[in-house]
């Protein structure tokens, strides 16, 4: 965290609720909340939109104090992402970030979701290098850039972080399928 310019000595992390049934999502959310997690990252887009909505409602019910990060992994159109956010109603207020709602090259769609969705947008698959981060900022397509060392390498991730900061974008450090050992500092 210090290498990337972090200022805090404690971090709050999320836990991922994978795709599946609303019942499985409810169970996973309850377990995560009981385990002390405040942020639930919910994978969406791998199923029909009504199932995603049912899963999100089940998660919200099972973990009423948790805040949500939606991660579509580029699986939705801008219209579908906006429709899902609208369908959430008051629950949308608990969504703190919507990660990669549209295809990596659909920056206009990401900008639409950012401008009309009422939640901050994070770029993941769209943020491949520092040049892409600059384009995301120029197109006003994302508020936050998700850095992944396994995606870009350390040197490029540092360039991406510097570019994002210079252009007023927030940073998030994420992972792919690294082991627990790889994702911790102890």
How would you explain this protein's 3D organization?
With 186 residues, this protein is an alpha/beta fold. 41% of the residues lie in helices and 16% in strands. It has eight helices and seven strands. It has helices spanning 22-34, 49-62, 78-87, 107-116, 130-138, 149-152, 154-166, 180-183; strands at 14-17, 39-43, 67-71, 95-99, 121-123, 144-147, 170-173. A seven-stranded parallel sheet has the order 1-2-3-4-5-6-7. Strand 4, helix 4 (107-116) and strand 5 (121-123) form a beta-alpha-beta unit. It is globular and about 40 Å long. The mean pLDDT is 91.
Structural class, judged by helices and strands? alpha/beta
Name the average pLDDT.
91
Q: Extract low-pLDDT stretches.
A: none
| Fraction of residues in β-strands | 15-25%
Number of E-state strands: 7
Q: Mind telling me the C-alpha Rg?
A: 16 Å
What about the largest sheet? 7 strands, parallel
Give the termini separation: 13 Å
Give the overall silhouette: globular
Strand order of the largest sheet: 1-2-3-4-5-6-7
- Give the helix tally: 8
Order of helices and strands: EHEHEHEHEHEHHEH
Helix content: 40-55%
Please supply descriptive tags for the structure shown above.
8 helices; 7 strands; about 40% helix; seven-stranded parallel sheet; alpha/beta; about 190 residues
Element layout with pairings:
Elements: E1 14-17, H1 22-34, E2 39-43, H2 49-62, E3 67-71, H3 78-87, E4 95-99, H4 107-116, E5 121-123, H5 130-138, E6 144-147, H6 149-152, H7 154-166, E7 170-173, H8 180-183
Parallel strand pairs: 1-2, 2-3, 3-4, 4-5, 5-6, 6-7
Helix pairs in contact: 1-2, 3-4, 5-7
